[in-house]
């Protein structure tokens, strides 16, 4: 099975989840973000096509272009707004000491363990460290570019609570 068919299958499976989430998210700007994506399709900066990530319109062709190094990534303005809004909400929850899975509680079997406010930063650092390990050979730069584009595109939806600064750091690579 080729890379394109694997990516097509993965994108098809996630599109069902995305369409449900889109219906639930009353403030979603899918259609206007999508038109931004289509409008910028031919914009070229420093010899590379500008790929505006909005969380909804990334295509297999876009990923192949990322693989080949033909794209320069940017976030749509509406994605930036969604990311900032989600981050503010996350900070509000943490500041109010509400019990929220993975933010003020442990994970998995430790979901019922409430984390004291002084240890919340350490919990998040431990989570990052636990996911920052790898197995096997490192990915090629081409595959890493594709995966970064996928990750940034998911974060562009504004559902994670990540800071805009961290998303911007990702697309510098």
From TrEMBL:
The record's section on InterPro entries has:
Aromatic_Lyase, Fumarase/histidase_N, L-Aspartase-like
Q: Annotated Gene Ontology MF terms?
A: catalytic activity
Give the top-rank taxon of the lineage listed in the UniProt record for this protein: Eukaryota
Task: Show the stretches that span the lipid bilayer.
Answer: none
Write out the similarity annotation.
Belongs to the PAL/histidase family.
Q: What is this protein called?
A: Histidine ammonia-lyase
| Source species | Panagrolaimus superbus
